[in-house]
Amino acid sequence: MDARKQSEMLERLRAHLSNKTTDLSPYALKVPAEHYVSEDQFALEVEVLFKQRPLLVALTPHIANEGDYLTHEVIDTSIVLVRDGDGAARAYVNACRHRGARLAEGRGKKLSFSCPFHAWNWGLDGRIIARPNSHEGFAQADARYDQLLEVMCYETAGMIFVLLEGDDIEGKVKELMGSSLSDIANFDIESMQYIDSRETELDCNYKFFLDGFAETYHIGPLHKNTISPYYYSNSTLVERMADVVHLVSPRKTIDKEFEKPPAEQGSVLPYCTTEYLLAPNAMLTYQVDHVQFWRTYPIDGANRCRIELSLFWPKPMDAEAQRKARLNVDLVWDVTTQEDFPQSVAIHRNLASGAVPDLVFGRNEPALIYYHQNIATAIGSDRLIPFTELGDDKPQP
Ligand code: FES
Ligand SMILES: [Fe+2]
Predict the structure, then answer these.
(1) In the CATH scheme, what is the code of domain 55-164?
(2) From the CA of 238, how far away is ligand 2's center (Å)?
(3) Pocket perturbation via mutation, ligand 1, pick of 80, 99, 102 by most ligand atoms within 8 A of CB
(4) What is the pLDDT of residues 4-38, one digit of tens each?
(5) What is the pLDDT of residues 176-220, one digit of tens each?
(6) CA of 96 relative to ligand 1 center, distance in Å
(7) Where in the chain is the domain with CATH 2.102.10.10?
(8) Which CATH superfamily groups domain 3-52+191-386?
(9) Judging by DSSP bridges, how do beta strands 237-241 and 244-250 pair with one another?
């Protein structure tokens, strides 16, 4: 986010905090339980949102240097992301072209990938290097077996996207991200250091993950003994940037900026949680002085998901920065796993029981509304129904 935009946002926050107001959606939204628990809708979401649109799977510092790699499970496809000899991020299906064994696990650094099954050796460019002890047994096979299956990959502004089906990943990323790309470029993610990751699985629909971050309304009650004392949780800025929903939530430290002489005021980043929600499953957060990157994927249908957090910190890092960065991974993970995620699981269970026909998202939860409307629009669903702007409780036709 550049200086001019920060300055504008600071003024909007000043007005909200002094008037005790927040950004509002023009309408509240009725959300039927099926939006979360329907397997038919889920199948459509997988095809349209996870396979036919670019997914933000990693950040540049995940694979900063030649040979750095990271394996990542995208729905049912395992991929290996790797930095090749030309410095480009590449994505391959994590499967040997001999008989399909997985080539890599976790993350690390390699000059080449040696298949654990029969030791075929693959270069960072995906080309076969050697088939040891094969007695020319594969001489008849054509050139398709000399190259790993490649997945379309595009890197920009410190973010790495993949596309499982279709083409023109660059055009699609630009269309989805809109002006958020220049906002995010300003964070200079490329030059940050990868710190650590956490992962868990939950018994709930994957969409509940972003729901927990798409409003600050819950911070007072749900996090009253943890993060609530640090936030002004009832005044949040929300804007739509193409398919990205951007939230800026002020911490109480923002008072320090307001106390400066007027000519020196103009920053929001050091005092706010700044989130970019990208449907269906990714969130990038600039948190005061570092970046948190979250992804969620459905597992085996609408009722279970996997959540991954990775943390990045500006360089250079001294011992104190290392200590603070590691502390932050644990802190954010503890609050979300102990306070937010149990709510997601409980809500899913209520909806799946059939006893709760629908939910309502309020006008003071605009990011929640926009995130879900982005999903509904993409899959052509008319399940989400805006209430009238007058507060009439009859849904609009
Ligand atoms: S499956 Fe990889 S070498 Fe056989
Ligand atoms: Fe929360």
Answers:
(1) 2.102.10.10
(2) 17
(3) 99
(4) 999 999 999 999 999 999 999 999 999 999 999 99
(5) 999 999 999 999 999 999 999 999 999 999 999 999 999 999 999
(6) 6
(7) 55-164
(8) Naphthalene 1,2-dioxygenase Alpha Subunit; Chain A, domain 1 (3.90.380.10)
(9) antiparallel
